[in-house]
Design a protein that fits this description.
7 strands; Thiol Ester Dehydrase, Chain A; alpha+beta
Length: 173
């Protein structure tokens, strides 16, 4: 995992996100969500996000479920972008190392740990605040082609089309 001092925004480029969905993690349209945006340096996916005060646990501490959500979301987008597949989380573990405070920016980073076959990936997530590693995670993700997602009826066609466009556009870079 990269350390906090390596998260200079100038070294990352923004990934496109649709604005017509309600995802709690990444929708710019969900007034109660995290509104995460994602950036890449082609080795990892990063998000700078401030956890809103209404998602606190004790006092000004971020709720552990929200921290887990941020880590799931960053690992998911890392798998989607870096591996060019649609995904579903199979399992994940979280290690809470330091308190995370609401109302202050955190940096979340997702990377690929292992890609043993075309149907599964092991991902890592890390969450930093004030230069300190506050939480880390690993997750197992099921990988799907757009055709497999269409066949199963798991996502709307326009979502699948947008992801396919992201894969094509970035593959041409």
């Amino acid at each position: 995992m990269t350390h906090q001092h390596d998260f200079d925004k100038a070294h990352f480029r923004a990934l496109p996100n649709r604005d017509n969905h309600k995802c709690f993690g990444c929708s710019p349209d969900n007034p109660h969500g995290l509104r995460m945006t994602f950036h890449t340096d082609e080795k990892s996916v990063v998000s700078w996000v401030t956890i809103p005060e209404h998602l606190c646990g004790w006092n000004d501490l971020a709720h552990g479920g929200v921290i887990s959500t941020v880590l799931d979301e960053i690992m998911s987008w890392a798998a989607i972008y870096l591996l060019r597949h649609l995904i579903l989380t199979k399992s994940m573990t979280v290690e809470f190392r330091k308190p995370v405070f609401v109302g202050k920016e955190v940096v979340a980073q997702g990377t690929v740990v292992e890609h043993p076959n075309s149907r599964e990936a092991i991902m890592a997530g890390a969450l930093y605040q004030d230069g300190r590693l506050c939480a880390k995670s690993t997750g197992s993700f099921a990988l799907f082609t757009p055709e497999a997602i269409r066949k199963r009826g798991l996502l709307d066609g326009d979502v699948i089309d947008a992801m396919e466009a992201l894969f094509r556009k970035d593959a041409a870079r």
